[in-house]
Amino acid sequence: MKTKDLVTVGMFTALIAVLGLLPPISIPGIPVPFTFQNLGYILAGCLLGSRLGGLSVLVFITLVAIGLPVLSGGRGGFALFFGPTGGYILSFPIIAFLIGLLVERMKSPKVWQVFIINAFIGALLCNLIGGIFMAFNLKQDILTALKSVLVFIPGDCVKGLIAAFLAVKLRNNPSIRKSLRIQ
Q: Of 124, 66, 69, nearest to 95 (Cα)?
């Protein structure tokens, strides 16, 4: 891997961590907070593609696992992977990889096309994985858990739209395309 790729991965890992400085929003009755960090991993997939985007998020969750307080609210530690938020955390690199895989195959993506990918993968699939994991963790009925996480979908779709807009605009900027090595 080239030095430039390592720097880019590190920058996006840092971006996701910085988004964790925004405080989480607690939702009554749900042990999983609303955070802004998924904007970072959705954007990593959109801009860096499957390989580098997935790697940047994998590095981020490694930092979480070793205990660095990089999750929203200053949380970190291996125990989080076994709590109600574990499914979400584990889905982050999968989501970034899948978004990157689909977006990098598009020749000149439009905002609406990237938004559809972000909404289905970044909002729906992430909450499906997270909700199912939460159900098993809390010994809840899966349908009940999935109904409870529906509250996250509108906000996650807005974050997906923001990421789509930024990704398309940045991908169309020649100097950014070159520096991020976007095809």
A: 124
Phi, then psi, of 163 in degrees rounded to 5:
-65, -40
At residue 108, the pLDDT reads 86
pLDDT tens digits for range 123-135: 999 999 999 999 9
In this structure, are residues 88 and 75 in contact, taking their beta carbons and an 8 Å threshold?
Answer: no
Q: Which of 95, 149, 94 is nearest to 122 (CA)?
A: 95
Looking at residue 125, its pLDDT comes to: 96
C-alpha distances out from residue 114 to 22, 97, 102, 146, Å: 25, 14, 9, 25
User: According to the 3-state scheme, what is the secondary structure of 96-158?
Assistant: HHHHHHHHHCCCCCCHHHHHHHHHHHHHHHHHHHHHHHHHHHHCCCHHHHHHHHHHHHHHHHH
Angle of CA points 65, 17, 121, to nearest 5° = 85
Is the pLDDT score of 181 beyond 90?
A: no
103 close to 117: Cβ distance less than 8 angstroms = yes
Residue 46 tokens, joined: 């959109």
Dihedrals φ, ψ of 76, to 5°? -175, 165
User: How far is it, in rounded angstroms, from Cα 179 to Cα 69?
Assistant: 29
Query: What's CA 182's distance to the chain center, in Å?
Result: 19
The pTM (predicted TM-score) of the whole model is: 0.92
